Amino acid sequence: MTLSLGGLYAAGFFAAFWLLAGLWAVGRGIAMQRRSAFVAAQTERLASLVEASPQLPIIVRADWRIEASERMGRWLGLDEGPRNFDELRGLGAGLDQPGHEQLRQAILGAQRGAKPFVLSLRPQGSARTIVFHGAAAPQAVGGPGSVLLWLSDATDGQQSLAQARSERDEALAAFAALSGLIEAAPFPMWFREPDMRLALVNAAYVRAVEAKSAATVIDGGIELCEPIAGTSASDAAEAARTAGSAQQRTVPVTIEGERRIMRVVDVPLAPEGGRSIGVAGYAIDIQELESERGAHRRFVDTQRELLDRLSAAVAQFGPDQGLVFANQPFRRLFALSAEDVSETRSFARLLDLWREGGRTPEVRDYPEWRQAHVDWFARAEASEEEWLLRDGTHLHLVAQPTPDGGLLLIAEDRTEQVQLAGARDTLLRVRTATFDNLFEAVAVFAPDGRLHLWNQRFRRLWNVEEHTLAAHPRVDVLMGGLADRLAKPNQISVVQEVIRAATLERTQRVGEVRFADGRHFDFASIPLPDGNALLIMLDITASRNMEGALRERNEALEAADQVKTAFLSRMSYELRTPLTSIGGFGEMLQAGYAGELPASAKTYVDAIMDSVGVLGRQIDNVLDLAQGEAGTLAVERAPVDVRALLDKALADAKIFADAEKMELAVQIAADLGSIEGDAPRLSRVLAGLLDNAIRFTAPVKRGGGRVLLHAEGDAQGVEIIVSDNGPGMPDAVAAVTEGTQAATQSGGIGLALARQLVAAHGGTMAVMSEKGQGTLVRVRLPRGG
In the chain, at which end, N or C, are there fewer CB atoms within 10 A of the end residue's CB? Predict the structure, then answer.
């Protein structure tokens, strides 16, 4: 029983062992099955990935057998997948001979030297490009001597590459053309890198900055534009890049040593939506444009200033039919205000305003008339019209279209011309009536010598029939038939010559003829502005008779003048000789030649000598006055010191003024100099003026009278003024103005003599006097007499 239990234990242990072994085997089998399924799934997945990969793996064995999928055959254009290397080449498909051999040599290199390679081959009859990447295959993949090839379809990449190369070539060609264009550009161009440094400049830039080469400009950073208002060229380029758009500015630039006005443009460069790659720029010379603009502006200003000075009314309208300019006559004529001009009112609106103000003619259909005048802008030729306004004004309008589409309107006020045309007819009738009623005989001859106009006195003077003159005969025919009317018939040629000289030579001639009946006529030919000649004949018969009488009277006057001259000569001798004797005897008595005189006798002798002096001066005045009237007054010329002359006159006058208790005021300039004249006579002039002033003032202003002597000089002459506050003597002044005889009758002989003596020295004397206010005498003496 014990054995039985041990056997049972052993049997149970054995059974359990086998049960456990079975369970382990079952579990192991299940695990291996699962692992096999996983590996199969992974293998299938890897095969699918390889099949879906854009690259195709191929294994070339050492015996040149090929392991590849069916896709390789499709890529090479083969009917089925190749099994050995030689099947890669087919008839019209697969690789061509050179490509097949090139691949073989590459595989041999990989087998023998483990040298990887890359080949791009194109199958026959296909546009596909296949890239072969080859290298020695790993031992786990192909075994010894195997080569692993990776095939990729590079058709799209090659086409893109070819397109990129083509685009690159086109871009390079365009860039080369653009570079040539930039280099050949006649104006400066440049390119700045993102740091705003110059990277490219053209030849025009180099010439503008007077550099040796573009490299010199770039290395030296030579800028075309100098800083203006603190802004440099790089600052302006940076501002353009910041703004993201082209920026332009007009600045003065020195080009080849000459100051020019340039328009500089900075253009930021950046791919669409990308970062800026720099700033390009160029400069255009606008000096001539600015000069032309300035010249055009000055021309417009000058033209408008000229139009403003014209008497004709002128207005300019722009292409938009707005009023641009109107000169002063136009504003006055059409009552335009400054607001109308500044607001550039349209032509149609102005027509409405002018119609309301009565500055357009009255028309039946105004809208149609208005549109017809607005159409002036569209015409190619000028339009002219006559406007008759309500107030009787006649206007002549010229509308000239301008090349810019505007209009130049010129208005001329012809009201006066129309009135003159009406008055002309009246004047012609008045002229005819005037000619017929003139006292003179008048005839007008045309340039061809024919009689054009005449009056009735001319016809009656020559006793010619009306129908003969109405035929307008030539002067030679007319005068040839009138020779028998003259006392000397051959004098008719003189009349013809005078008329010919006026018509052809345009010179005025005069003459005199005597008719057979004893009448005398003066005649003259006068050239007229219209080319005609006016012949005037005046009856001087009475004048001739009077001339004879006057000639006889003149002879009598000449005889009387001779008697007057002889009388002056004798009077000079008869008056001066006794006076000289009396003066000489008186001086001898004063000197004691007749013995010592008592005091009373000396007083009488002194009185006699004073009377002799006064009488001598009066005789000299009378003789000078008479000689002045007779025209025989002789004035000696010698230098005269004006100050000494005035001092002497003042010394004599002061004694008289002190005796009359009058004030004698003196205002004499220091630089009077000298003049050319007769000192004694000038002394008498000054003494006479001062004496008259004191003499006429003293009785009225005794104790309060005042006489002023004022003298001043300049380079041309000396001016002397003698004034007083006496009663005035307007009658004597008027007498001096009228003449010596009137002056003598009114008692103004002193002023008359002074006027003659001053005039004899080439000077002038003016006298002003008002009753109760005094008298002023102004004498002006020239330096040269």
Answer: N
